[in-house]
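Lecture 7 notes: from sequence to structure.

We start with a single chain of 90 residues. Read the sequence below before looking at the structure.
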Amino acid sequence: MELVHVKSQKRWLALNDEIQIGELIYEITKDNMTISHAEVDAHYRGHKIAEELVLSAIQQARESKLKVVPACSFAKIVFERYPEQQDLLA
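Now the structure, written as C-alpha cells:
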C-alpha cells in the first residue's frame, strides 16, 4: 500500500497496486486544515489505512504550521487515539 498526496485536489489517497482503496479530503483556510472526509474500501477496512491517511494529513498540517479541524468523525477518533497530536486541534 502507498499513500499519495494529491495537493492540487486537496486529498490523500491510499493505493494498492495503483488502485485507489481509500481517500481523505481536506480544505485549507488561512490557518486551518479541515479534514472533511476519510474513507477506505470495505474490503480493506480494519487495517488502519484510514488512520494512516489521517496521520499523514496531520503531519502535513504540522509541517505547514496549520491547526486541524476534524470535521470527519473518524479524524476525531484518531485525535483521541493519539493525544500527542492534540496540540494541533483548532
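The helical segments are 49-63, 73-81. Keep this in mind for problem set 3.
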